[in-house]
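Extended Data, panel c. Modelled sequence:
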Amino acid sequence: MPERSEVPEGWVSVPLGDVITSSKEKTEPSTNPSLIYIGLEHIESNACRIIGNGLAGDTKSTKSVFYKGDLLYGKLRPYLNKVCIPDFDGVCSTDILVFNQNLHLDNHYLMRFLSTSDFVDYANNNSSGVQLPRINFQKLSEYQIPLPPLAEQHRIVASIEALFARLDAANTRLERVPGILKQFRQAVLAAACDGRLTEDWRQTNVVFECEADYLAASRAVLNNEELSPAFSHTVQKDLPSMWKHVTFGSLGDWKSGATPSKSNPNFWISGQIPWVSPKDMKTEAITDSIDHITTEAVEKTNLHILPKDSLIFVVRGMILARDFPVALTEHEVTINQDMRALIPSGCVYPRYLLQALQNQAHHILRAVRSSTHGTKRLESPTLKTWPIALPPLPEQNEIVRRVDALFALADKIEAEVAAAHAKTETMRQSILAQAFSGRLVPTEAELAQREGREYEPASVLLERIHSEKKEKTGRRGIQSTLV
């Protein structure tokens, strides 16, 4: 039995089983199919909140009965901390313990106590079963609960709910920030790729004539190619002087990928060369991959070694239904057949090209097609002729510098928001710790002394609970005898 520190004056520390019992009332769903059904999936983890429901008629096996105001406690995988109090009658999964309302114990006080980290840890550590760990009521009943006078229970609950409401409001505001930052990043990329981001830079910086001539000459060749019909209208947008729309495929060497034979161990065992597939495309900088191949695999297949700063992207797979993964390589890699690569030429800065594609991602996704088997794919001709707004190299570098700086600021804000969110969760446990040690609100003993009155300590409340439990036990015994 876990030990607890001394409780405040007027409180008692007792085993949980001394103040509550688990309801045994059960029913068959077919007897009342319209009753609301609550399963573990309908209770939000760590939130003491119901997030959905079903109907008894949609279930089959025997269910537990609960009434409005009863406390429901998920005994399966107790580390999920699923506990709530419904404001309606219904039935629930037998993996949920039901604690009926008690005149001498505020169920909301009990609910918050059962959601403390100490109690969750105890329940988790005393569960049985590996794949489906469960805690039984007998083990839960041994846990010591601090019991204050009833009036104090109500005050504690009111204070917890008020403080938690403020934390919930803060979290609601924090949860809006990632969406705002996503819009911010998209706006930065849009401004970067149409010249607005570096408008002031162009007013104070002059591109050397030789650089301009080199770029203009290269554009003259590139511009002769037909732009992708998917979004050729984008070339109509006015661009700054010395910018021009060029085709993506003309900005470097286009490479495809392949999969070396899996049946040949010489291609895979002890391989050191990263072999990138869509499952590796989780960041915009590729430093390594899950799978590796050998030098022999490269020599005996049509694979290409892609140098550092190659642009790689997914052209086939269900991920294209929602995203266009694109990244730069930080080391030499190879790619599989669901990927394509561009080794940038000298007229384009690789990171600028990465940002230009990221800016176009939502347009590119519109060009995704489905094969007869439902697989999503981007055709190489579409991507090769995709229009890219290309500024002179010096401005490309300045654009990348400014975008990186703004994105770093967004990343910093995002990290601070995540830390603030984590802090609110820490504060919840701190509030609960204060509540159940008598430090959140004045105790009944303190108020009685201050107001010069008598008060009923929890020991009297406990005696009343024990007395009523004995009476119920006696009545059940008499009924059993009569039967």
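Residues 150-192 form the longest helix (43 residues). This feature is highlighted in the accompanying rendering.
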